[in-house]
Amino acid sequence: MVESKEQNEHLRDIANLCYRCKKCSVICPVAPSGRFNPRKFIQEINLETPGRLKKGRKFCDTEEDIWVCLTCGQCRVCPQGLEIPEMVREIRKEVREQVPNDPRFTATETHMNIFPIAFELMRKNPKPAQKQTILNQYASIQKWPALEMAQTGSIAYYPGCFNLYEHALVNLHVQQTLTAYAIIRFLNLTGITPVVANDYCCGHDALWAGDEETFLSFGKRNIEIWKAAGVKTILVSCAEGFRTLSVDYPKYFPEFSFQVEFAADYFDRNQIFKKIRGFEVKCRSIVTVHDPCRSGRLVDGGHYESVRNLLQNLIFLEIVEMPHNRDEARCCGVASFRNCTDYARDMTRKRIKEAMKVGAKYIVTTCPKCVSHFQCVTLNEAAALKAKFGKDPPKVMDLFSFIYSAYNANDLL
Amino acid sequence: MTHDVQVIQEQTATCECSEKSPVSAVTFTPHTNEGKFYPHILMFCCNWCSYAGADLAGVSRFQYPASVRIIRVMCSGRIDPAFILEGFRRGADGVLLTGCHIGDCHYLKGNEYTRDRMVHVKPLLQIIGINPQRFRLEWISASEGRKFADIVKEFTETIQKLGPFELKE
């Protein structure tokens, strides 16, 4: 068969390692929905291996709906070390090549498909967004001090898709611009002027939806831009951007030679807040940390402690932990802005209930997508949650926007 | 001057209630004549006010440039920011969204939703790298035929100054 050559042989060799312990099926949050099961998925790959039962069988003909998978990586408990999210991604790519308009794929569209359209426009539009101008406009609207940003230099801050979610998902208060502003402002206060280039989206969503072409086009242009700016270290605050830049870029682009650092790690390692004069921020509140999959399980050595260490800088702040934290953190419910079903919303609700049970007033996370999904439930179902728990649902904020809001108000209740 | 306008029928999944509903839309082809640029402007008109305003402009024989392609919707509240981006993706040089004046909406509050939602469209265009002047939101009532013609004329001039919106593969 022609397919067997084109198909990813390596992937299929790995799939043979599975000894069907079902650990992944037990932990998978979407397995109870009956539409996707990691163990069955591995079995399907094994079945189509050349020389096995059904020769030339295509994955797209099987019943497993790979588009339902959240790629949250909870199945990485596998004792054989199978990386099921990566395999799902490879198979998605194959399926999209074999069946360009897979009805199961188009059925996963959300938000009127605004994000794929926006990414396509970004890819085809020769004029990039002027990020420095946008940030300084934001500062002048808020009447905050203007930011110092460089065009060239060794250390860069990568805002990623920047304020796209904030303005595409109206009324959800994702506050992405605030996050970018906060990081650059804190760096400025310690005397660092980061480079903010007019770079593009990292291509995370396209890659995980099996659209490698868009991902490659973004990556190529970003690398050119960073090289032209003479960048050596790139700080990324968004969990998805961090995963894409630190794991996927070196894999796809051999010329990628930059050092990528998670912004929380950088702030923790260099003790940025201790260096800021007069940084005595009071915050009498209770906060819990939601660990996103992209900065945790899906990158080596999850970046959990730096986020908590940074929160320790706020005086009077009580940090509580949810029962499922760090490597076992539950998924926020939706990945890549696809497949937002009742089932997914139920998962988001479960996670919020978990936070409410430990008495958190704020959920702090580092992924703008987690923020938007949690906000969608806490804002739309505030009355129902209040009736059940007798208090308001927690507010959801990004780590740096939380710290900056506390810093600005000097007391965030 | 030729009009290279093509109406295409497409099957798109729009919402969860209906599995698939047909969507027809207008595509544009690049359009210059004797060195002068005639923009393609996608215009959304609400059924109750702006579309009637367009009618009045026509009946009263007010002259306005033939640059707009009007899509009638029942209420301006129907328009999602995704539609505006989709318009740009399909080659529009500008998008004009019109509805009833605030307080006059046939569905009481539809245009208030539009107003709140469209605040975010200009920053959204900015981050994609599109000049925010290419989008405009206006209120036109059924009796404002003159205003309709003026806005179309003015907006066409703005777009002509900005030049064509081009996408590269």
SSE layout and pairings?
The complex is a heterodimer of chains A (413) and B (169).
Chain A: H1 2-6, H2 9-15, H3 23-27, H4 38-47, H5 84-98, H6 103-106, H7 114-124, H8 131-142, E1 155-158, H9 164-168, H10 176-189, H11 204-208, H12 212-228, E2 233-236, H13 239-252, E3 259-262, H14 263-269, H15 272-275, E4 286-289, H16 305-311, E5 318-320, H17 342-357, E6 362-365, H18 368-380, H19 382-389, E7 395-398, H20 399-409
Helix pairs in contact in A: 10-20, 14-16, 17-18
Chain B: E1 5-12, E2 21-28, E3 32-33, E4 36-37, E5 41-46, H1 50-59, E6 68-73, H2 81-89, E7 94-99, H3 110-118, H4 121-128, E8 135-139, H5 145-162
Parallel strand pairs in B: 5-6, 5-7, 7-8
Antiparallel strand pairs in B: 1-2, 3-4
Helix pairs in contact in B: 1-5
Encode the helix/strand succession of chain B as letters: EEEEEHEHEHHEH
Q: First CA to last CA of chain B: what distance?
A: 27 Å
Q: What's the average pLDDT of chain A?
A: 88
Sheet with most strands: strand arrangement of chain B: 6-5-7-8
Number of domains of chain B: 1
User: Using CB atoms under 8 Å apart, which protein chain pair has the greatest interface?
Assistant: A-B, 29 and 27 residues
Major sheet size, sense and barrel closure of chain A: 4 strands, parallel
Secondary structure: helix percent of chain A: 40-55%
Low-confidence stretches of chain A: 1-6, 51-55
Multimeric organization: heterodimer
Quote the beta fraction of chain A. 5-15%
Number of domains of chain A: 3
Structural class of chain A: alpha/beta
| Unreliable runs of chain B | none
Please tell me how large the radius of gyration of chain B is: 16 Å
CATH class of chain B: Alpha Beta
